[in-house]
Each structure stands twice: as C-alpha cells, then as structure tokens.
Design goal:
The complex is a heterodimer of chains A (431) and B (253).
Chain A lengths: L2 H14 L3 H5 L11 E2 H6 L9 E2 L1 H28 L4 H9 L18 H14 L1 H21 L2 H13 L2 E5 L15 E5 L2 E12 L4 E9 L9 E7 L5 E3 L13 E12 L3 E2 L5 H37 L1 E2 L2 E2 L4 H29 L5 H30 L6 H8 L9 H15 L3
Parallel strand pairs in A: 1-2, 3-6
Antiparallel strand pairs in A: 4-5, 5-9, 6-7, 7-10, 8-9, 11-12
Helix pairs in contact in A: 4-6, 6-7, 6-9, 7-8, 7-9, 9-10, 9-11, 9-12, 10-11, 11-12, 11-13
Chain B lengths: L2 E5 L2 E3 L21 E3 L1 H15 L5 E8 L3 H11 L3 E6 L2 H6 L2 H14 L2 E7 L10 H9 L3 E11 L2 E8 L2 E8 L2 E5 L11 H7 L4 E4 L32 H10 L4
Parallel strand pairs in B: 1-4, 1-6, 4-5, 5-11, 6-10, 7-10
Antiparallel strand pairs in B: 2-3, 7-8, 8-9
Helix pairs in contact in B: 2-6, 4-5
The chains are: A alpha+beta (431), B alpha/beta (253).
C-alpha cells in the first residue's frame, strides 16, 4: 500500500466532504414516496396495498424512533464502538422511549404494540447503530416473547414489568461445543427435590454484561437427547453464575458478548419457563421469529450505510463531474438499491405473514439469509464508492462493514438457513 | 386554572429541499415530507410542561387545514396534549389561508373553550410571518408575551422573558394571555412509543371555520413565487485598500 498516496487522497477528500458528525444530520426519512397509511389505502379502495403500507400507529412509531436514533443515539456510536462498551445512558433512553417492551401489555408497563412495530423500530435503530438494534431485538423478539407466551402469571408478574422498564435479558443456548448443533448442548440440570442444580458453560451470550435475567437452556435428562432440554429463568445474582470477560470483536463491539459459567447454581422449580423437556421447541420457535428481527437489523444497517455513502458520491467531483454521474457508479448504486429494496420486501412480508398467523418459517429464513448477504454487499460497495475516506475511521461506513459480518453467522448461520429452506422446498413437492 | 390552547401547523419538513412550482404560483407540496412546525413543537412542550407542573388542567391541540393535519394533531397528542381540534379548511381556502384567518379562528376557539392561555410558535418555517400570535391577542384584546424564552406562571399573572434585539426583556402580564414560543424556551420531548399508543385513544373534534363564525376570504393575493437568485462567486482582494477601492467601484460605498 502506497501510504503517502493514501494520505494525499484522504487530505483532498477531507476538504470536499463533510465530517462524520455533520454526515449524520439530514439522515431523515429518505423515501421518495410519502407514506400512505393503511387507513388511507382503504379509503382509496386499495384492497391489496403495497408492503410499504403502515398503520398510522406504526408510521408514527417509526418516525419517532427515526428521530430519536438520529438525534439522541448518533453522538454515542463512535465512542461505544471504540471502547467496546454500551453507554448506560443509551440503554436508559431505550427503556424511557418504550423501545424495550414493544409487544408487552401496558398492564406490565409495555407499549402494547405489534410485532411489525418491533421490526420497524429495529430497522430504524440499526440505521444508526447495529449494536443498539441487536440489544433491542433480543429483548423484544426473544426474551419478552418467551415470557409472554410461556410465563405463568407469577413469572409474568415478576419479570415482564421489569423487562419493559429497566432490566435487560439474555438468551443462553450456544456453548463452546454446540453452535449450529444446538441440541447437543452439555449444560445439565439435575433435580433435587424442589430445585435444580445447573452445571455447565455457555458461550457467545449477547447482552450478558447488562442483563439482569438469563434464560438458560439446560438438559434435565441427557439420555432423552434433545427432549430433555428445558428453559430456566436464572437471575443475575444467583450464586455460582459467573459472567466471563467479553469478547474483543470485529464488529457489533458495543454489544457485550460473554461466556457464562454455571457452577452448581441452584434454580427453584418455579423458575422453569414452560414445560420440562420442551425447551428445544421453544428455542426453535423463538429463533424462527428472531430471525425476522435480525433481517430487520441487517436491513437497517444496509440502508443506513447506503444513506451515508450516496451523498458523498453526489458531492465528490473528479474529472469535472460528480462521481455519481459516471455510468459505472450509477449502475453499481442502482444495483445495490435494488438489492436493499428486495431485502426490505422479504423482511416486511415475513413479518406480515407471521402477524397474520400464516406459515412464515421459510420466508423468515429467506429474509434473514438474503438481508445479511445484501448488508455485506452494500457495506463493501459503500466503502469503495467513498474511496480512501471510506477506509478511515473518521467516516462511518467502515463500522457498518465490520458490523455486517455477524449477520451471516448468528441466530442461524447462512448454511443453516439454506438447509432449512431446502427442507421446506422438498416438502412442497411431496404430492 | 384550566385550559390551554396550543396551535400546531403542518409545514414542509425542515430538511426538505424546497422547489418552486413551474407556474410560479407557490412551492411544490405534493409528495413532499411534512411535519410539525419546530416552533409549534416547542409550544406543545411548554404547554405539556405547565400541565405536568399542575398549573393547568387540560391542553388542547388545534390545527387548521385538510385531513392530513390530523397527523400533526396526533403527534401533539403523543407528546402529551389531552385532546385535539381539527378545523377543516381545504382547497383554495387552504392555499390562501394566512395569519389573519388563523388568528380569527383561534380567537373564536379561545372564547369557546374558555382558555386561560393560547400558546403558539413564534412563526412558521414556511411563511415566516410571525403575525398569528400578535393578531390573535389583538382580536381577543388579551395581553401578549411573544418570543418567549422563559415562562413562569404566578397566580393570575405570567412572567415572560422575551428575546429581543437588544437582549432579554422581562414582562409581567395578566391572564388570559397569548404567548408565542421562541427557540430557547425548551427542548421538545420525543414522543415515546407508549404515548403514541395512548394518543390513538384521545379525541380529535372536527369543525369548520363557518361553525366559529369566521370567514376565510383572503385580503392577500400571491402574485408570483421565485427561487432566490443563485449565489455568485466572491472576489478575493489582497489588502484593505483594495477592498475599499472595490466597494467604491461597485457603488456599495
């Protein structure tokens, strides 16, 4: 690499382009169409409105979170990434805005809205910071949903109101020896009268540093294979629960990812979530929904990155014209925009299918697989379009590039998504 | 101590690049993003704050215009207003609508609702008129505290710190009164998601200007709208003498 050459380029680049913080302004809603609410569509007699149609409530929520994210979260992003630490102020403001209990019933202090609203919220947060988006996603699509669907009245009473107001949750399935092969997990739960003793260790646990409650998947009966897996509610202050040092990651650095050690921890019987031995079903069920949330995160990431890069191409002049005006650039930009649009439609449709109670698993896999690939393509191209400055930490695109990589890996690797889709496709041709 | 009326105007969003219509009759509004006037947001925030401090019981958000303004009223409800009033104005009347008509509507509503305060933004970012608050006060024969950067209620009087050209001016006016919000009065809150959900249940009443006895006929006719002239490049000079010579040469001094 010819360093003097690069230094020269970046110096010129800096004179032309706006610095980081200014780039963030004016990142408002970039849609060319004004939104049409579902009510307006119905009034116009449009029976099958396009996917980009939102109820008035969804539209207002999306605009409120968009504004909040661009104005209140954006200033923290760079520092959180550098220090690999989520600012407690940020987490507090997420709770204050009601973003951590979107589907939770207002009687437990939640917002009482819909799954699609959560998807829009995650997308808007991811446009600014994928780490904040994933914190919000895990809380809403995994933790809150598990408690709401499976919790006894007492468990809901105890936990849901905390989850919507001040407590973060973590979902603990993966172990060092079981990632994609989740059901071969080794953490054991041995019954002793009215309590269980859990032993084992978990890995790659997101939100671990901040969580007040952990949903731990452990096997009560290894001889039964996966049919022994049970979901346990473990409070942070449980004796024997050790949260290991967080991983030093390539991307999503502000999101804490830690190993967990469970050393003879005692968990009362009443802390079993759902039924004994049904944990594997719950895990699959939740991950099917969670994957739409991750799709929304990758979608927001791609869009946010794109929104940063295109204004630069419209400003930067070389050979007497804007670099946007070169046909090669236009074709690349249009291609990426198309991919993002397709990713958006896959994600929104999967979300609407789930809300409608229709089969959605294949579509959810497609959404997660496709958006994570699109995020990878988009961020890579955006750095290229911004040239030398795209490669520096002064500009935000390199962070999006590092953050997108986890998209193809977590909550079901791309290979797992493809195999799952193939199983469905196989069945479709069964008659 | 009861009710405050807050005016909220739906304007083109501040971040949008404005374009003049080809027929020069106005600016392009079709398909363009609109939102609540920033000074109106500050007015809403102040009214909601007064309610939280228990100086007033009810905040009513009012907007005049076609059906789309209900979105703006809903945003005000999501920020904490109790109910809304939508004064329906559309078509030619809406295009010609200006401070005179609005202030008549607000004056009529202030009397009808028995409001103790009418709080408006100091001006709208689309027409920059800065007249509605003042006209409303005159029509009602109420005192006015305009360009307010600080508002304190003390019994039946209001202390208003106003931002004026020379600095800050503090006045004490009796209620009922009209206040207009300036930039530094407060920082508007974000509508939290639970409040957006609650806003769905709050009522928005509909009425027409005729119901309030207001005629919408405009006394102003817009002849033409132009874009501002493109800014020309400047000229660099070496010394102060050169500067003076150049200014003299082009007739500036």
């Amino acid at each position: 690499m010819a360093s003097p050459l690069i230094r020269c380029f970046s110096k010129v680049g800096r004179q032309v382009s706006r610095p980081w913080s200014v780039c963030q302004h004016g990142l408002r809603n970039r849609s060319t169409q004004p939104d049409m609410s579902a009510e307006q569509a119905a009034a116009l007699g449009v029976t099958y409105p396009p996917l980009q149609t939102y109820s008035e409530e969804e539209g207002m929520m999306r605009d409120a979170v968009n504004k909040f994210a661009q104005e209140r979260l954006a200033p923290f992003v760079s520092k959180m990434d550098e220090n690999s630490l989520m600012d407690p102020e940020v987490i507090k403001s997420l709770f204050e805005q009601g973003l951590m209990g979107i589907e939770i019933d207002p009687e437990y202090g939640g917002t009482g809205s819909t799954f699609f609203s959560s998807i829009l919220v995650i997308e808007e947060l991811a446009k600014v910071d994928a780490s904040v988006a994933v914190l919000c996603d895990i809380q809403n699509t995994l933790i809150n949903t598990l408690f709401t669907k499976l919790g006894t009245a007492a468990q809901k009473e105890r936990y849901l109101s905390r989850l919507s107001t001040d407590m973060v949750g973590s979902f603990c399935l993966s172990e060092a020896e079981s990632g994609s092969d989740a059901f071969s997990l080794k953490t054991r739960a041995d019954k002793h009268g009215d309590y269980y003793v859990i032993n084992g260790s978990k890995m790659w646990i997101s939100n671990a540093e901040q969580a007040g409650v952990f949903l731990v998947m452990a096997n009560v009966d290894p001889s039964a294979g996966h049919r022994g897996i049970t979901c346990f509610i473990v409070d942070r202050d449980t004796e024997g629960l050790q949260i290991g040092k967080k991983e030093n990651k390539l991307g999503l650095r502000a999101s804490s990812t830690c190993p967990l050690n469970l050393d003879n921890i005692k968990v009362p019987e009443k802390n079993v979530l759902g039924q004994i031995g049904h944990g594997y079903k719950y895990a699959i069920g939740m991950l099917n929904e969670g994957r739409i949330g991750i799709a929304a995160q990758m979608l927001g990431l791609a869009q946010g990155c794109f929104d940063q890069a295109v204004p630069y191409t419209r400003q930067r002049v070389q050979f007497g014209k804007r670099i946007f005006d070169f046909q090669a650039m236009q074709h690349q930009i249009a291609h990426v925009a198309t991919q993002i649009e397709a990713a958006r439609l896959l994600t929104y449709n999967a979300a609407r299918l789930k809300e409608a109670g229709r089969p959605f698993i294949k579509e959810a896999c497609m959404a997660k697989y496709f958006t994570s690939e699109v995020a990878t393509l988009t961020t890579s191209k955006c750095i290229e379009w911004m040239g030398g400055v795209g490669f520096t930490k002064d500009y935000p695109v390199e962070k999006y590039y590092r953050d997108c990589k986890i998209g193809t890996i977590y909550e079901g690797t791309t290979n797992i998504q493809l195999s799952t889709m193939a199983k469905f496709i196989d069945k479709e041709y069964d008659h | 101590m009861s009710r405050v009326l807050v005016g909220v105007k739906r304007v083109i969003d501040y971040a949008v690049k404005i374009r003049v219509k080809p027929d020069q009759s106005g600016v392009v509004t079709d398909g363009v993003k609109h939102s609540m006037n920033p000074f109106c947001e500050i007015a809403v925030e102040e009214a909601v704050k007064l309610k939280e401090k228990k100086f007033i019981k009810e905040v009513v958000a009012v907007s005049c215009g076609p059906s789309q303004v209900t979105e703006t009223i809903r945003t005000a409800l999501a920020m904490g207003c109790d109910r809304g009033i939508h004064v329906e104005v559309s078509g030619k009347d809406y295009e010609a609508m200006g401070p005179l008509q609005i202030s008549k509507i607000f004056a009529a509503l202030a009397k009808k609702e028995e409001a103790s305060l009418v709080i408006l933004g100091k001006q709208a970012i689309d027409d920059d008129c800065n007249q509605t608050g003042q006209m409303t006060a005159a029509l009602l024969d109420w005192p006015q505290g305009t360009f307010a950067s600080e508002v304190t209620i003390d019994g039946e009087t209001v202390k208003v710190v106003r931002e004026i050209d020379g600095g800050l001016e503090t006045i004490k006016i009796s209620m009922p009164a009209v206040l207009t919000a300036d930039l530094r009065l407060n920082t508007p809150r974000y509508a939290t998601l639970p409040n957006i959900m609650k806003a769905k249940k709050k009522k928005i009443a509909n009425m027409k200007p005729a119901d309030l006895g207001v005629d919408m006929v405009s006394r102003v006719e817009v002849l033409r709208v132009d874009e501002p002239p493109t800014r020309l490049a400047g000229v660099k000079v070496e010394t102060v003498d050169d500067l003076v010579a150049k200014l003299k040469a082009n007739g500036t001094i």
